[in-house]
Amino acid sequence: KTIQVELAEKRYPIHIGSGLFEKLPQFLEGIGWGRERRLMLVADSHVSPLYAERVLKPLEQAGFTVGQITHPAGEESKSLHTLERLVEDCIRFGLDRSGAVLALGGGVTGDLAGFLAASYMRGIPFIQLPTTLLAHDSSVGGKVGVNHPLGKNMIGAFHQPAMVVFDTDVLKTLPEREILSGCAEVVKHALIWDASFADWLMEHHRQLMALEPEVTAEAIERGCRVKAAVVSQDEKESGIRAILNYGHTIGHALESVSGYGAFTHGEAVAVGMAGAALLGEALGTATEVFPFTRELLAAFRLPTHLSPVWAEEELLAAMKRDKKAKKGAYTFVLPTGIGSVVLQHGVEEAAIREVLARLRGGES
Ligand code: NAD
Ligand code: ZN
Asked: What cofactors does the UniProt entry give for this protein (predicted)?
């Protein structure tokens, strides 16, 4: 299946399916890339031994020159330090402005290698080759970047990929917890945009968790369609794109307070979506969204409650530091129903405290 992302100044395809890495040379031809373009394949230390060869072989057989960089797996690699090493490898390889980057991996490699492409020699093209379910989200939309010790994604750019090729075969080796983490972003895309997608997920959650090929491809496709639709309306996030942060205000705070690692990104966002549902009900933007939200997340064995270990004051402080926060006021994406949300600025602290308490209580 192929989806087109339509932007003001360009468009690019997302290919989703089984065995697609073998077709990479044709896909490159499709976007007008010839053999003279040197390619640098970036992957992490888990993904590289599993899949680099699957990408390299067809490309080399087709006559492409491909260099290879492996960075350590994990969020810590999304750093300026790692970026500097990647740049060094690119220079030594002789990558120039006619070259391109192939980002093979999850969101960490996609964000890191994408930012390499955005900044190397003031910007060269790149292709996203996502290998996690979560990366159906991160590989589309052009947000790339690295972390700073004082904050996640603090250094970055908008740099759209020239193409996304999601070969679903690679998901077979994904650890269980990473599958469920990716399911959280699939659920997010349904909850913000498409009630029938949410119902479909409820019906097919077992097949998706078991990675049944047809259901998995459909879930990725529908998730990418939502992402592409939102991004095409607002590429640089001056408005509606912010709805993609549903569940992320509390989610990011939880990740930050717990020190990145206690939760997967999806687990933290799941708690955040449960919180946003409760907050929406409390503030009157929606009624009766929490029960379905909780049920859907629980179906994917995702958490919807908050352990008392994470102190309320620290969570609130982290929410205030959020990039999206304006003048210290709290900004939330709140549900208006299942499948629709609204961006709400200036949410009162008292309401958030109440929701945090309910997330800790028996309620969820
Ligand atoms: P990740 O890239 O760290 O991958 C998770 C783990 O799975 C890693 O250990 C990785 O080595 C391993 N892995 C990846 N593919 C595998 C495979 N096929 N088989 C076996 N193991 C595999 O993490 P992620 O969850 O994919 O992405 C999280 C990152 O994405 C965060 O840094 C987050 O900020 C970012 N993100 C970015 C955007 C965006 O729009 N740019 C959106 C959402 C998330
Ligand atoms: Zn996310």
From this structure: NAD(+); Co(2+); Zn(2+)
Cα angle: 69, vertex 71, 72; to 5 degrees: 155
Whether pTM exceeds 0.90: yes
pLDDT reported for residue 321:
78
Q: Return the CATH number at 306.
A: 1.20.1090.10
Domain that holds residue 193: 176-360
* Ligand 1 mutation target, pool 76, 108, 164, 322, most atoms within 8 A of CB: 108
Closest C-alpha to 128, from 64, 51, 41, 46: 41
State the SS3 of 181-205.
HHHHHHHHHHHHHCHHHHHHHHHHH
Which band of pLDDT confidence, cut at 50, 70 and 90, is reported for residue 258?
A: confident
End-to-end CA distance of the chain: give it in Å, rounded.
38
Whether 236 has a binding-site annotation, put simply, is no
Residue 363: band (very low, low, confident or very high) from pLDDT cuts 50, 70, 90: low
The number of distinct structural domains making up the chain is 2
